[in-house]
Description:
CATH topology of the largest domain: Rna Polymerase Sigma Factor, Chain: A
Shape: rod-shaped
Distance between the termini: 98 Å
Structural class: mainly alpha
Number of helices: 9
Number of domains: 2
Largest sheet: none
Order of helices and strands: HHHHHHHHH
Amino acid sequence: MHAFILTHSSNAKSLQLKCKTSEQLLVGNILDNREGSFSQLYEMYAPNLMGVLMKILNQQETAEDLLQEVFLKIKRYLPLYDEKKARLFTWMLNITRNTAFDYLRLKSSKQSKSTIEIDVHHSELESFSHSVNTDTIDLKKLVLGLNEKHRTILELSYYQGYTHLEIAEELNMPLGSVKTSIRQAILILRGFFSLPG
């Protein structure tokens, strides 16, 4: 013979709470606005999410800024988190990656727009000059005489302030090839002036 024991509803609730994982409890505490719960989430996951941002962006300051943005998004969208679809860390990891890739797309879009605007106004700038700087006339012509790859890399590096890594990413080239191309272009220019290498 089997005996069935009816439990009081408060006992059933405490049993359910004990069955919940620490992640579920933490999410519940945050959603209930319990003091210190969001700070606990930050302390638990910020180092790992920062590592992901650094791997994607390779820029400490930008990664730190985006980490703050990531946690703002996590707080905003936490009510939509569904533990049946993904673990909490996986869900936060997706937000982190998407934030980083959105930043890179926006940065790339701004750079492309800037380049287009420079090209559009290039002819206007060529014809507009109050004075002539005789020291740069020949150098400008020499740079324009370089092949397109060398000219583009020099313009990105010296006129637009790109780092070698940013040039490699922008032109989809290996970093070593960028450095070699810059050296080759400088050697070609030095050759025009018969400067020692």
